Amino acid sequence: MKKKIFNILKYITFTTLGVVMFWLVYREQDFNDIWQTLSNDVNYTWVIISLVFGLLSHISRTLRWKIALEPLNEHPRTSNTFIAVMSGYFMNLLLPRMGEFARCGLLTKYEKIPFSKLFGTVVTERIIDMIMLLLILLMAFILQFDQIVIFGKNNPQITENLQNLFKSPLLWILLIGTIVSLVIYIRITKKRGKRNKFEAILYDFASGIKSVLSMKRYKAYIAHTIFIWFMYYLMLYTVFFSFDFTSHLPPLAGLLTFVLASFGMVVPVQGGIGAWHFMVENALGLYGIESTNGKIFALLAHSSMNLMVVVCGGICLILIPIINRNYNPLRGNS
After folding, report:
1. Number of C-beta neighbours around residue 8 at 10 A
2. What are the pLDDT digits (tens) for 243-293?
3. Of 54, 60, 34, nearest to 237 (Cα)?
4. How far apart are CA 282 and CA 280, in angstroms?
5. Which three-class secondary structure state does DSSP give residue 266?
């Protein structure tokens, strides 16, 4: 009961935070003008092409996950793996960070793969994706240094908040305290001669991480990783051609906008709502795009991306019990 109440409160808190951030970004906008622009001044062909790039990235992420599971001698069906990935994105829109648990849970249910093994590969996947983001940030920093300096001067509170986060004694106390508590718990259990569930979970978790490090097809894994992020970039940059006021911007403008928008997704709100829009608006402002137009662009790009996730993810959640009705992973299709 307490857990349910906590989850409800967490959902309400994150949702409220997202709504407030969105309101702060758009509070001075006339939505009738925005609607007129979206109705009459957008080339939606480019939006559709953008969504195709997004879908390709999700397919590539599916195949990459299957490669990571091969060293564990786990070979889930591609259809189930894709559905799990899309369902995870869908769940992230409902509750931040829930998608990773949801997609592992679905594959555990329908493919009978231990959850902790799956989660180990997903955590490693997230680490690798963060490394990719940092590499792209470094590239953008080198190629668009002047614009990044301007962004930092215009938004000093962002830099200040990041510095305060890592300087916070509470953060380090919680981190060290958690590690010490886990070590003490494991040692006490071992002295009693018991094999606790937590230790078993840690073992499977480690197996999942080692699977990525020991995979035979690591080149394919790396290739998929590069392809996924390139598709993410194209998914955003293609939308530039939907508007006259952004169609002239060069690929490097799209790169910087993509990087800053990605950091907007780090904020723990559903789909980065509000924070993503703020980052995109300010990124476009570095290239002379008016604030109103930047907000319209952000609204269309963010809405189209999430609409695809909602539609595809919702369909996947409906389909997965149907296509697995007569499927047993231990013996294949019946």
Report:
1. 10
2. 999 999 989 889 989 988 887 776 666 677 888 888 898 888 888 888 899
3. 54
4. 5
5. coil
